Structure formats: structure tokens, C-alpha cells
Amino acid sequence: MIRKHFAGFAASALAMAVTAQAFAGTVTTDGADIVVKTKGGLEVATTDKEFSFKLGGRLQADYSQFDGVYTRNGDTADAAYIRRGFLELSGVLYTDWAYTINYDFSHNSGDSDNGYFDEASLAYNGFKPVSIKVGRFDPDFGLEKATSSKWVTAPERNMAYDMVDWANSHQNGLGLQASSTFADSFYASAGVFSKDTDDTDGNSVKQVNGRFVFAPMHDAGNVLHFGVNVASRDVSDTAFDSRYRTRMGMRGVETLGGNDAGTNGNRPVLGGSSTSAAGSYDRDDAYGLEAAFAMGPASIQGEYVARKTKADASNLEDIKGHGFYVQGAYTLTGEARGYKVGKFDAIKPANKSIGAWELFYRYDSLTVEDDNITTASLTRDVGDAEAQVHTLGVNWYANEAVKITGAYLKAKTDNVTNATAASGTTPARRTGDDSGDGFVVRAQYVF
């Protein structure tokens, strides 16, 4: 219902703008002069920079096809869905206040009926260089998460993030965060968040996050970046989803509302349980390291992420996991990736006729130790579960608004498979697929 009302509001606003263009006479203001920019969205600001608003958005349409461990029966499945459909409104109020409202109309990230607010926040910037933000927004954790989904290199962020999706997702909660970029080379943030999972008393899960970045080289095509991250949440007396699971870079296996592979999509569980009872665990902690280097059109980056879910019940063991990725990219047409302290930014084509062409390769690895698994099941053997994914792809930045991505993925697992089994095999799961292939094509438009 909210999505429908918001869409109606957007349509009405557009109609009013067109009508004003067609019939308005002289426009006057009682304050500072106004500057209107229409490149890359619609931006209106006063010349004294005291007030402004910018209307923009992004649309990402994906088609993917995959088989093997990516599906429950091993046969080929596909998915076609809107990955993101954002309408974004941001601006400045009374110089020191900034607001951001991003609504995602995509069923992919919301549910089968509604979109959701990806961000709705208010920030106070009067204590420069410190900014204080409150509202709904994603906690700070990781280089790829800090980089906009418009400008991450591969279609999906690295596999290690799947294991700690709570660490850098708002999960319908609210937060308070202080952040600062200082001395040109440093970025730091610290925040506290209240999530939508409740304990037995009805208190929401509380989480703290921290991130620190040092970038002694911080210009496009000349980047040296190091970072450290930490996140911790209190899950004592809380029934929660403790699973360590992953889509292995293939969103189409399960999209949470968009078109996907349905019941045949396989999202392997490497450890934990979807129904951990209250009192089972005490704390959930995540740690991360990040590094990046860029010289001209070439860049390399990587992150290491670890998670530990500390047991509270005497009959349970801690669950531990760690993962990493290494990614290399090269722009054949010579452009450098944009960079702002703490995150990468867009590639802007120098040649408007052919655009910018970027090749990339990424290797992901994820390992989970869950000693609570003492008996083999249809899809999980005893011992550490592992998953690796190779991703090879190309990005075509046709212009500053349109980006086309194509990527091939090759996955391999150990001690975890899909549910495929030959009749009469004991144990049945040992005939399940432990490898799979897939490809993803994305068309993106931003304004």
C-alpha cells in the first residue's frame, strides 16, 4: 500500500512539474537565487547553499541462469527480476542539516507485495568535520558495502558478506551514527542500532558498529586504502536466525519477492539454524579487514571477514566462520575508477561514442566451523563446510547513466551440497552436486 501511494505521489509531482513548465509565467522567490541542474537527476539549490534538494534514482534489471549446486535438483533454472528500483531524494536544510530518503520499489528486496525504505535519515553537519546521522540506514561495515551498488564491480557484493548480512544491513531498524573524514586521508565511524528482532521481553536486538579507514593515496587512479571493521550484537534471550548461509554470488536462487528459481533455488546453509531458541547464544560478533590499490585504469582490492556466534547453552558449541575475496579490474579504455576516502565511485567514460570497458575477476572463499553438526544430513556432512566462487565479467559504461554487466560464475563446495540424490544411496547426500555454473546479465540506468 505504501508503495502504491508513493508511486502516486511521484507521478503527481511529475505532472505538476510538466504543467508548471507549460503554463507558468514569471517565477519569483523571497530568498536567495535558485540554481537548477538537470544532469544526472533534478537538483535545485539556493546560491547561498542553505537549502537544496536532489531527485534521482536507479534501476537495475537482471537476468541469470544457473545449475548444479545453485539448484536443489541440479538442473538449470533461471531468474528475471528488478534487482533495485530506487527513487532517491536528498538535500540540505538550513546549511547544517542534510536528509536522505531512498525508497526501493523492487519486490526483490522488499516482499512479494511491497517495496521498502532503504534509507530515511537526517544528519547534522554543524560539528565539522563530524557528521551525526539518525534514522534508518545501513551500518558501516566493509569497503564494498560503503561503495554504492551502482558502482561495485561485480553484480553482487562478495560472498563473505552473506555470512554477516546483519552487520551491514538496517533490517528494518533505526540507528545513530557519528562519522568523520579528516586530514584528507582518514575516515572513521561509530554507531549503535536497534534491529527488528525482539528478545523474550520484547526488547529489540542492539548492535554496535565501528569502521576506520586510512587512505594515504586517495585520488582516482592513485589509491592506497586500508580499513578495519567491527560489529557486535546482543542475542541473549533472543530467538533468532543464526544461519551462516550464502547465495554464492547468484541472487536469482532466492530474491525475497522478485522472480527467482522458486523452490528449486538453493541457498546452502554452512552452519547455524533458522530457529535458534532464546538462550542458545549470547553474542554475535563480526570483524573485517579491507585493502585496495589503484594505479591508472588498474585496481585490486580485497576484504577478510570473520564471524563468531558465542554459545550460551551448555549443550551448544560456538559457531565460527571466515571468508575473503580478492578482486582485480582493468579498464581497457583507460579510465580510472573514481574514489572518495573510504569507498570507490563511478567510472566516467572519456569517449562518449564507445563508452568505458572494464574487465574484472574475483575469487571468493568462505569456511564455516559448526561442531554442533555431529550427524550427516542430506545436504551437510560433518566437518567444516567450504564454498569458493570464481567470477569473471565485463562492465560496459555506455555513458554516465547506463551500465551493462555480464558475468560468469563457477562455484565449488565441500561438505555441503544440494539435495540431489540417487535412489537407494546411503548416505543419500553424497551424490549431491558440489559444483555449479551460472551467468548474470544486468542493465542499469541511474539518474
TrEMBL record:
SUPFAM superfamilies on file? Porins (SSF56935)
In terms of InterPro entries, this protein maps to: Porin_dom_sf, Porin_O/P
Which region ranges are annotated with the description Disordered? 255-277
Compositionally biased, Polar residues: which spans? 261-277
Alphabetized Pfam families for the sequence: Porin_O_P (PF07396)
Q: What is the top-level taxon of the source organism?
A: Bacteria
Task: Tell me the leader sequence span.
Answer: 1-24
Q: Which UniProt keywords apply?
A: Signal
Q: What is this protein called?
A: Porin
